[in-house]
Amino acid sequence: MNAHARKSSENLPVPADKRPSDHGPSGKGRQLTARPPLPPAIAEFQSDAVELEERAPPRVARMTLYCVTALLGAAITWASVSSIDEVVIAPGKLVTTQPTIVVQPLETSIIRTIEVKAGEVVHAGQTLATLDATFSQADVDQQQAKFSALDAQVKRIEAELAGDDYTKMAGDTPDQMLQAQLFGQRRAFYVAQLQNFDQQIAGQSAALAASKNQEAVLNDRRDGLSQIEAARERLYNKQSGSLITLLGSRDARLDVESDLTAVRGKADEAAHSYAKLRADRQAFIEDFRRAAMEQLVELRGQRDMADEELKKMELRRNMVALTAPADAVVLDLAQRSIGSVVREAEPIVTLVPINVPLEAEVSINTRDIGRVAVGKEARIKLDAYPFQKYGTASGTVRTISEDTFLTGQQDQTATPSQPAAPFFKARVLLADTRLNASDMPVRLLPGMTVSTEIKVGKRTVISYFLYPLLRGLDNAIREP
């Protein structure tokens, strides 16, 4: 037994501090070599610890280690070469491409009727509410009377200038009847003036003709007296006639010449008067037409201005009936009742257009805006229709705001303890809204909340593990 114990103790491992050194006296020149395994026959007689030490590892344990190592290497390799879509999640809501319609009164008035209720579908041109039209109708009536009076004057003057009879074309309105009377009086005055000028011209023409006839007679008498005077002068020269007779003949001739000169003066005066009367007659005609044309130009301008004012007043009168400009749904009504007074431009009815394209208005965080661009593809998940059952809608980014907005600008419930976070607004155009809904109809309405996933690129799987590590190391290295 002692020999067996000694032999067993020789096979036991020696502690490191009790092993002979290679550099010691007893270990000089010796090399450390692995102890060969014990033969199986001897190992059976060793202690349990020695037996476990000498036993080879199980194959299952070795295979498990190899499989775990291979799986870990494959996972790292796959994570390094595989990439997934990188998306930016932006919450928002559905909005119409056309803005919300706000129906407002043009001026302060009184509500007479309210024809619709909140949630009701209205069509284009349908009356929503009516206002009191007393003041606007009075303005229209007053302006209409002014326009009618000016129009009657314009047509009367146009008839005068064209030579037409306005009394035959005038209607039975008071303004037209008054202008017809004025037309008759002016025409009578015009005709009377022309007749007066014609009579004066006729008188001067007769006087001129009489002067011409008298001048012809005096010319004949002068010629006869000149011959008598010449004959008596010859007789006087022959001492056959007396000087008194010659002088008498000469005096008679001079009297006729004097009368002839006076008649010629009267004829010239009559000719000038005749020409002046004809010129005065033509001047009266031209002045009458000139005054009428000047008045026509002025009245036409006033009539056109009155017509434009009448159109504006008629528009104001027609706007007392508030109508829907397009097919829409009544979103909200003002807290007013029949008989209430509404101020100018105060919202009465708020409408949401229907049958118009929808867009998603989303909020993009400032840290993600650098990777979002116009034209990026997006996937829209509607909160009202779970995407697991109904699927998602697709779209593209149409616009991005050029500046940030604050949360308080959209949500008035923001508190001082909750600081406003800036964000960018973006519009996502819905390209495909066909959801997988076989059991119920899907209706997209403005205001539905959505979650938009904007595809901004691709990223390897391993980067999701490395980036946080690198960020942590970078921040840790620069800590004070």
What does this structure look like?
The chain is α+β, with helices and mostly antiparallel strands and 480 residues long. It folds into three domains: 86-97 and 357-460, Efflux pump adaptor protein, beta barrel domain (Elongation Factor Tu (Ef-tu), domain 3); 101-131 and 321-349, OB fold (Dihydrolipoamide Acetyltransferase, E2P) (Beta Barrel); 136-318, Helix Hairpins (Orthogonal Bundle), CATH 1.10.287. It contains eleven helices and 14 strands. The protein has helices at 2-11, 40-43, 48-54, 59-81, 134-162, 166-169, 174-237, 243-318, 387-390, 407-410, 463-477, and strands at 83-96, 101-103, 109-114, 121-122, 127-131, 321-323, 328-333, 341-342, 349-353, 358-365, 377-382, 393-400, 423-432, 449-460. The strands form three sheets. It has a six-stranded antiparallel barrel with strand order 1-10-13-12-11-14. Strands 2-9-7-4 form a four-stranded antiparallel β-sheet, with no helix packed on it. The longest helix has 76 residues, at 243-318.
